[in-house]
């Protein structure tokens, strides 16, 4: 279970910044969640107006997270570092991993203060496993890697699944998304896995541009990337079959509702470190 030793922040008031739309809460709205507020719903509504498949894309991305986590747990990876966690929406990553391996250990990381406020839902580990939560930003990977939460939860000398789902398109070029990912990759042991899903303009350039403008108006920079630009994040690692593909095409479960590439509007892939 979660170690409460350093929960000294509980007595401090958390500024949830409810007057500003946040991408994590907009994603929660797309998924039909209830942890979103007027600013989030207004921005999400504007996004849906220019990209009506936004809810479908969010569900396809969430389903990819479930499938990739399950596949890696079945392959023997027992540690997961999930950056850009978002609002807890069951089943969460630790529930999927621990259903396969009850001893799986998961560290969740997000920069949205409301995720911290709801982090208890992320910490309901199986008795054999461990879950922990770190409030941090992917743009400061050194802080994540040096954190006591990571040291207590993850053994970086053993394989780790690094999950960066629906996150890197919020890291603009001037913050050097590639260098951030390389720094995280370099800290992981051979046998580790990199899991990424990423918005793309490839299937609908006009819609991608319009949704980028909606997020910009709400105060969030979005940088959609092409297939080749997404592939670059995996440089030096071995892509698992089927490689970089639309989120819904990565090892789909039988019976999953059909989604088009244009609706998914995102690439996904998993790669393993040699």
Pattern of helices and strands: HHHEHEHEHHEHEHHEEHE
Number of helices: 11
Number of domains: 1
Q: What is the tally of beta strands?
A: 8
SSE topology sketch:
Elements: H1 23-30, H2 38-50, H3 54-74, E1 79-83, H4 93-100, E2 105-110, H5 113-117, E3 130-135, H6 141-145, H7 148-153, E4 161-165, H8 177-186, E5 193-199, H9 205-217, H10 227-231, E6 238-239, E7 245-246, H11 261-264, E8 266-272
Parallel strand pairs: 1-2, 1-4, 2-3, 4-5
Antiparallel strand pairs: 5-8, 6-8, 7-8
Helix pairs in contact: 1-2, 2-9, 3-4
Primary descriptors:
15% strand; 274 residues; disordered N terminus
Describe the model:
The structure is a single chain. With 274 residues, the chain is α/β, with parallel strands linked by helices. The chain has one domain: 3-Layer(aba) Sandwich (Rossmann fold), CATH 3.40.50.150. It contains eleven helices and eight strands. Strands 1, 2, 3, 4, 5, 6, 7 and 8 form an eight-stranded mixed β-sheet that branches. Strand 4, helix 8 and strand 5 form a beta-alpha-beta unit. Helix 1 crosses helix 2, helix 2 runs antiparallel to helix 9 and helix 3 runs parallel beside helix 4. The N terminus is likely disordered.
Summarize the structure.
This protein is α/β, with parallel strands linked by helices.
């Amino acid at each position: 279970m979660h170690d409460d030793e350093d929960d000294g922040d509980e007595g401090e008031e958390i500024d949830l910044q409810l007057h500003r739309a946040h991408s994590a809460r907009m994603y929660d709205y797309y998924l039909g969640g209830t942890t979103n507020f007027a600013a989030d719903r207004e921005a999400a509504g504007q996004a849906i107006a220019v990209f009506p498949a936004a809810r479908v894309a969010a569900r396809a991305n969430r389903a990819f997270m479930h499938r990739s986590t399950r596949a890696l747990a079945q392959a023997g990876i027992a540690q997961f570092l999930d950056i850009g966690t978002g609002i807890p929406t069951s089943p969460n990553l630790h529930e999927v991993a621990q259903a396969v391996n009850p001893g799986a250990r998961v560290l969740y990381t997000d920069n949205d203060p409301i995720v911290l406020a709801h982090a208890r839902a992320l910490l309901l580990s199986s008795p054999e496993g461990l879950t922990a939560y770190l409030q941090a930003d992917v743009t400061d990977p050194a802080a994540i890697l040096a954190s006591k939460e990571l040291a207590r939860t993850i053994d970086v000398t053993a394989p780790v699944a690094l999950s960066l789902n629906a996150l890197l398109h919020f890291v603009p070029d001037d913050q050097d998304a590639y260098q951030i990912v390389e720094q995280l990759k370099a800290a992981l042991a051979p046998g580790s896995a990199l899991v990424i899903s990423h918005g793309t303009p490839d299937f609908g350039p006009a819609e991608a541009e319009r949704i980028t403008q909606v997020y910009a108006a709400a105060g969030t920079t979005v940088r959609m990337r092409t297939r080749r630009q997404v592939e670059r994040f995996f440089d030096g690692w071995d892509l698992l079959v089927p490689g970089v593909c639309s989120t819904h095409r990565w090892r789909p479960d039988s019976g999953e509702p059909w989604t088009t590439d244009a609706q998914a509007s995102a690439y996904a892939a998993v790669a393993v470190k040699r």
